[in-house]
UniProtKB/TrEMBL annotation:
Domain TATA-binding protein interacting (TIP20), first and last residues per copy: 1061-1222
Ranges in coiled-coil conformation: none
Key words of the record: Repeat, Ubl conjugation pathway
Compositional bias segments (type: Acidic residues): 335-356
SUPFAM superfamilies: ARM repeat (SSF48371)
InterPro entries associated with the record: ARM-like, ARM-type_fold, CAND1/CAND2, TATA-bd_TIP120
Protein name as it appears in the record: TIP120 domain-containing protein
Signal sequence region: none
Source species, domain of life: Eukaryota
Pfam (any one): TPR_CAND1
Length: 1259
């Protein structure tokens, strides 16, 4: 800024006209905002001097603008000037001039907030200069407002720079505590002491709390007691994790003021006490555990405290009131309307009662609201108490649903909503679900009766909350509202007819509930009354606001699926055909309008497809509607929904004239297979399959030629799901039209052969491929020849050199395909195939890829067919054990095991004898034994065939539990577990006998074996597991980490497959599981290779397994976990040096935030430092790419945790978290861009389901 410009500005600032002075400051602000703004020393002095005068300007607008200008100017002037400004403003603040106090304080706060974080020296000097003066002002100023401003400025300095004046903390503490009860409005001093408590070290913090405790014990002044409790509550909310150790002293002191009759008239005191309890529950969830029952009883008692409205503060009389019963509502609505008028009269009476009490200063509502909030906190943080809440809390909440004070009522509703949401999480984990459903069932009638009385309440918020509650109940508990349909439909009708100007939210919430009510309850319960709602729904469908229209159409879609009654449900008054015709007419009208919002367009297409699918045989002009839908396929925006709608229609069980457009539809769908959009291709293939199953036999060859031509491009490993869908469709076409075999052989088979040779073919795509070949070979058509199908598969392997071999998975896939063809063709073909493979293996110099294929194929065929008729087959296979290639010996082991499984009597004894007598082949033979046991254990009928061999097999396995070879021990462990499945009641106790052995190898092998005895789909093992599980899982505290790892892996698998058994042992398991997440120094070794030093951590696998098990328990045993211990254990993983463990801890924390954010909020500050270290970690310049990629992965993971934390309420009140966001992340360009990408979801979270990021499927 030039000297001339400064002079001009100064002249204007001296002008007598306040408007010109105002404009001068405004012009200066414009200049200061420029990046190149700079002042020389002389101009700086003149400008600052004048601005300090303008702070005292006669015009308030000029004063305020000058203060704002200071905020922009502070970072751009010299540090000496900043200190000078602060000194002069402080002098004015502490002066006798009362008019200067407020504006000087405002300007000082602006100075404090505007200095740059990196100006450490300035900030330190500023703090040490100002704080003593502010403390002096607090102690000696005669003006209360000056004292409060000084407190506020010190608080601001603590928030920003607390670490820069640690030596002043004690003086501030002494002053703040001495002044804690000095002010009528203690808000600022309480906030100041709270922020100081967060800033000081633990010893100083303890002394602050102990001082307050002493005052609570000694001070008898009720006004002061309120302030002490308010302070404790404020500290608890900000840094509850530091307060937990003091609760045993604090809680009994505070309880006195709630329970002692002497204080029962002091509503403000009770309100403060209840708020403190709420903060303890939210911020100290572990330490508060022993007081939970007490807090619950107090809250339940005081939520009914209403001295001016009776003992319980409620007019609730339960179902006995009879004022709104099922009989009061009819289809015509006349009686129902009378009932609602009666309720209106009751409301009017209640209002007149309130008017009589206007002269009473009633603050008892604060006590009731605080009680409700305390209950909300308890419900949110104590999922393990959910059953108790339904027994003790829910009846009280229901009574308070008709509370006369709206803010209290809404808080009660919030409590109930929290409880239902927690229940939904618990039910999804399938623990204790039946009992909770039964408990809710006892209250449903009272809930509906009480809420239904308020459907015509005057408050919009109340009505929205009611529908929110009903919606959650409906979504969480199926079929519980069947009996109350008339009442509920009446309420929906009232909401849809609401004429208030701000009824949008009400309509949306009522429509959302309407949809859930229809989806989750019996259709027949609505037939008597739903006709009365159709006109209102149709009005909503025409609503100009697209969200209401789309929501109403979604309701119409659900109605379309359930409107047609079964014969036994038909009633004379229910004209379902008229409903269908009316809806169809309206849907068609909307479908023609191309100017609608996309959400409405998609919703109407879905609705009309459901309507045609269910009522197409009674609707007029259905063909015309189908042609309109066909036209919509050309619109890219609605294409996917249109394709899926035709699938819905094609799968209908009624007669629909789809055949008249089917050829054109198939042609369009075939062409869509060229599209780049994956969802379009998926939807097209699914829809074509539905069409083919119903109409495929009517299509001509030309139609199928186009289909196969386009579909063949999709049969590849580029997208296995599309390949799976394409092969399913091909097989379906072959079933309905066998004469299309030539087209399949020409177009599809070459592509399938390429797919089969892919090493990534697996899962559903592999199963579909095998099913496709089975369908092909069993189809009666002369064009399908066994030889022509199997030769291309041979060529995949035989045309390769040893150096060009396929991975093992490809050999397995090809061999399974060959086995499928051989077994499902004919005995002759099967025999020729096996003979061909044995001939290949008998060659003196065999081609390795061909030998591998022969071995795997013999194994696959032998597992499903008795090959005992082939002479010397076992000798041939065992001979391959000595092959130079490990690949061939491994394949031979696989083949022997599978062949033996196909004929136990002939081959199993051979395997056992070989294990005993040929030590050099022991590992391979045990693998063969594993294949045998695995194949037999998959069958329910094969136990008898292996029963006689079990004793000798067990002896063999037990003898090798101490085998020096780890690979052999692992195979032995798997064999022991799977053989136990044959007779768990007898065999699991046999395993248990070996646990107490001194051998580490044996203990690890036996404990690990139990994992393989746990089968998700077999309940026969449950009894034995339940009885003996504890004896195995005690190995989790074995002295050897290898044994503990075996126990952890077994626990991990059991938690997934048999959660109910693990849940009974959780009290024992959890503390030991948490212990295994910790880094154990005794397992860390430093290995030196010359000058290189390598750190070996043998406990990594234990920690990974422990965190993985916690992840599973969070999914299926959430309500049995103590949330605080769980979260603290997760947070310990934030400091783990292993990347996989760190990422596992981050992932778990994100899940926990979604399930119980309040508990995470309680330990928020303790998470900041480890997150900051991860985010700011920098590697050496010479770090390799792998280390760089790994570090990036950790940074992104930590940033995702930060983003999830930011969604928790009140995180902005945490100083540490705010600094992490504003200073560490936002002021670093690289980190800020990464964080922004996460916030905008431009980099999807890998921990989220892919479905959350894909286009929604509506079918």
């Amino acid at each position: 800024m030039s000297s001339f410009a400064v002079d001009q500005t100064l002249d204007k600032m001296n002008n007598n006209d306040h408007d010109i002075r105002y404009m001068a400051v405004n012009d200066l602000i414009t200049q200061v905002k420029k990046e190149n703004f700079k002042l020389d020393t002389n101009n700086e002095n003149q400008l600052i001097t004048k601005m300090l005068k303008l702070v005292e300007d006669s015009s308030g607008n000029v004063q305020n603008l000058t203060v704002e200008c200071f905020g922009l100017l502070i970072p751009k002037i010299s540090e000496n000037q900043v200190k000078g400004i602060a000194r002069k403003l402080t002098t004015r603040l502490l002066s006798e001039d009362q008019e200067a106090h407020d504006i000087s304080a405002l300007a000082l706060r602006k100075v404090v907030s505007s200095t740059l974080n990196e100006q450490t020296k300035l900030n330190t000097e500023l703090s040490t200069q100002m704080i003593p003066q502010m403390l002096k002002g607090i102690d000696s100023s005669e003006f209360v407002n000056v004292q409060l401003e000084c407190i506020q400025i010190i608080t601001d300095l603590i928030i920003r720079f607390n670490s820069l004046f640690v030596d002043l903390h004690e003086k501030i503490k002494t002053t703040f505590i001495s002044k804690l009860t000095a002010y009528t409005a203690p808000g600022r001093i309480v906030e100041g002491l709270t922020q100081l408590s967060a800033a000081v070290n633990q010893n100083s913090f303890n002394s602050i709390i102990e001082e307050i405790i002493k005052k609570l014990e000694s001070d008898k002044e009720v006004k002061n007691i309120r302030i002490y409790i308010q302070t404790i509550s404020s500290i608890s909310r900000l840094i509850g994790y530091r307060l937990g150790s003091h609760l045993k002293k604090l809680v009994p002191l505070i309880l006195v003021y709630v329970e002692d009759e002497k204080y029962k008239e002091d509503d403000e005191l009770r309100d403060n006490c209840l708020h403190s309890f709420e903060s303890f529950v939210l911020r100290c969830p572990k330490e508060v555990g022993e007081f939970v029952t007490h807090f619950t009883k107090i809250s339940l008692n005081l939520i009914n405290y209403d001295p001016y409205y009776g003992d319980d503060g409620s007019s609730y009389s339960g179902s006995e009131s009879g004022s709104f019963t099922d009989e009061s509502y009819t289809a015509s609505g006349s009686e129902g309307e009378d009932s609602f008028e009666e309720f209106q009269d009751e409301d009017d009476d209640e209002i007149s009662d309130e008017e009589d009490l206007n002269d009473v200063d009633d603050v008892s509502w604060k006590v009731r609201k605080a009680s409700a909030k305390c209950l909300t906190a308890l419900v949110s943080t104590r999922p393990e108490q959910t059953e108790m809440f339904y027994t003790d809390v829910v009846p009280v909440l229901i009574k308070k649903f008709d509370e006369h004070e709206e803010s209290v009522k809404l808080t009660v509703f919030e409590t109930f909503i929290k409880l239902i949401k927690q229940t939904k999480i618990i039910l999804s984990s399938k623990t204790g679900s039946k009992k909770i459903i039964d408990l809710l069932g006892k209250h449903v009638e009272k809930i509906i009766t009480t809420l239904a009385k308020q459907f015509d309440a005057k408050s919009l918020k109340v009505k929205v909350a009611i529908f929110t509650i009903l919606n959650l109940i409906t979504q969480t508990f199926d079929n519980v509202l069947d009996a109350y349909a008339p009442k509920l439909l009446k309420g929906i009708k009232l909401a849809l007819n609401d004429k208030s100007s701000s009824n949008t939210e009400l309509k949306l919430s009522s429509l959302s509930f309407f949809k859930s009510l229809l989806k989750h309850n019996s259709p027949s319960s609505f037939y008597s009354n739903i006709s009365d709602l159709i006109p209102d729904l149709m009005v909503a469908i025409k609503d100009p606001y697209y969200k209401i229209a789309a929501s109403a159409l979604k309701v119409g879609s659900v109605i379309s699926t359930m409107v047609r009654p079964k014969k036994e449900d038909e009633i004379k008054e229910y004209n379902w055909k008229k409903i269908g015709v009316d809806l169809h007419s309206l849907f068609c009208e909307i479908l023609k309008d191309q100017s609608l919002d996309q959400e409405v367009k998609e919703a109407v297409i879905i609705a009309i497809s459901e309507l045609i699918s269910n009522l197409g045989d009674v609707l007029p002009d259905v063909l015309k509607t189908l042609n309109t839908l066909l036209e919509r396929l050309s619109n890219e925006i609605t294409r996917v929904v249109c394709i899926q709608s035709f699938r819905t229609i094609a799968e209908s069980n009624i007669e629909i004239p789809l055949s008249k457009i089917i050829e054109k539809l198939m042609s369009s769908l075939s062409q869509f297979l060229r599209q780049k959009n994956r969802l379009v291709k998926q939807s097209s293939l699914r829809t074509m399959r539905s069409i083919v199953e119903k109409y495929g036999s009517t299509f001509n060859k030309k139609t199928y030629q186009e289909t196969f031509s386009e579909m063949s491009r999709l049969v590849s490993d580029d997208d296995l799901h599309l390949a799976h869908l394409s092969l399913r469709l091909s097989a379906n076409i072959l079933k309905v039209k066998p004469e299309m075999a030539n087209l399949i052989i020409d177009k599809i088979i070459p592509k399938v052969v390429e797919l089969v040779s892919s090493p990534i073919l697996q899962g559903i795509a592999l199963k579909t491929t095998l099913w496709f070949y089975k369908t092909l070979i069993t189809t009666k058509n002369s064009a399908i020849k066994f030889s022509s199908l199997i030769k291309p598969l041979y060529s995949v392997i035989k045309n390769r050199s040893t150096e060009e071999q396929l991975p093992k998975q490809a050999y397995l896939t090809v061999s399974q395909t060959i086995a499928t063809l051989a077994i499902f063709s004919s005995e002759e073909n099967c025999e020729k195939t096996v003979n061909g493979f044995t001939a290949e293996l008998s060659k003196k110099k065999t081609h390795e890829p061909s030998a591998l294929l022969a071995l795997y194929a013999i194994g696959e065929i032998g597992s499903r067919k008795d090959l005992s008729s082939f002479k010397n087959l076992t000798d041939l296979l065992i001979g391959c054990f000595d092959a130079k290639s490990e690949l061939i010996s491994s394949a031979a082991s696989y083949a022997l095991g599978n062949v033996a499984a196909g004929c136990l009597d002939k081959f199993l004894s051979v395997v056992i004898e070989q294990i005993k007598n040929v030590p050099k082949h022991q590992y391979l033979l045990f693998r063969s034994l594993k294949e045998i046991i695995s194949r037999i254990s998959e069958s329910e009928t094969e136990y008898e065939s292996i029963k006689k061999f079990i004793p000798s097999i067990l002896d063999l396995l037990f003898a090798n539990c101490e085998n020096k070879d780890e690979s052999t021990r692992n195979v032995v462990s798997e064999c022991l577990g799977k053989i136990a499945l044959f007779n768990p009641v007898e065999l699991i106790p046999e395993l248990k006998k070996k646990i107490s052995t001194k051998s580490v190898f044996t203990r690890a092998t036996i404990v690990g074996a139990l994992k393989f005895a746990i089968h998700k789909d077999k309940t026969t093992v449950d009894k034995a597991l339940k009885e003996h599980f504890h004896d195995f899982i005690v190995a989790i505290e074995d002295e050897n980490h290898t044994v503990r790892l075996s126990a952890l892996k077994t626990l991990n698998f059991a938690s997934q497959a048999k959660p109910h058994i693990v849940q009974e042992e959780l009290e024992y398991i959890l503390p030991r599981l948490y212990k295994e997440t910790q880094v154990k120094q005794e397992l860390i070794k430093i290995v030196k290779f010359g000058q290189l030093v390598h750190v070996v951590d043998s406990g990594v696998e234990n920690r990974k397994s422990a965190f993985d098990t916690m992840n599973i328990l969070l999914s299926n045993s959430y309500n049995l976990l103590e949330p605080t211990d769980f979260v603290v254990t997760i947070s310990n993983g934030f400091t783990d040096g292993n990347t996989e463990v760190l990422l596992a801890a981050h992932s778990l924390m994100k899940r926990m935030i979604r399930k119980n954010s309040e508990v995470v909020r309680a330990i928020l500050d303790s998470l900041i430092e480890p997150l900051k270290r991860t985010i700011t970690n920098e590697l050496k310049k010479d770090a390799d790419k792998q280390d760089l990629d790994e570090n990036e992965q950790k940074i992104f993971s930590a940033l995702r945790v930060v983003f999830n934390l930011s969604n928790i309420p009140d995180t902005d009140k945490s100083i540490k978290f705010t600094e992490l966001i504003n200073n560490t992340i936002q002021k670093n360009t690289n980190l800020a861009s990464k964080y922004e990408a996460i916030v905008d979801n431009r980099i999807p979270d890998p921990d989220q389901s892919t479905l959350e990021y894909s286009t929604t499927s509506y079918f």
